[in-house]
Write a structure and sequence with these properties.
The chain is of the alpha+beta class. The chain is built from 3 helices and 7 strands. Strand 5 and strand 6 form a beta hairpin.
């Protein structure tokens, strides 16, 4: 009985870590992630800038566009060889490419 109680209470003591998604997973499950209003956390590389605040983020699975406001960019410059962590909301519309909108500061790993 004590083991059962301990097994039920232990997860409450240690909250679950946020899952890291791959870009491929975000693209595959975009419709569901949009309706759930989930903030996805992705590790990847910012490989280019394609607009005023739009960047290309890629990992080993795929590439996606991310809108990052200036206030969420890191204070120190970074290169496309440095892995970053982006937390963002998924933007999904039928017949349009899936994009992300950063809602927290971009951090270095």
């Amino acid at each position: 009985m004590k083991c059962l109680l301990l097994g039920l209470l232990l997860p409450l003591c240690f909250p679950a870590q946020k899952k890291y998604y791959t870009v491929g997973e975000v693209l595959k499950y975009a419709r569901q992630l949009t309706t759930d209003s989930v903030t996805v956390k992705i590790r990847g590389y910012i490989t280019g800038k394609v607009g005023k605040s739009t960047y290309l983020l890629e990992d080993r699975t795929a590439e996606i566009r991310v809108d990052i406001a200036d206030k969420y960019l890191p204070g120190k410059p970074f290169s496309d060889r440095e892995e970053v962590i982006v937390e963002a909301l998924v933007q999904y519309e039928i017949n349009r490419p899936v994009t992300l909108t950063a809602n927290r500061p971009v951090t270095h790993d």
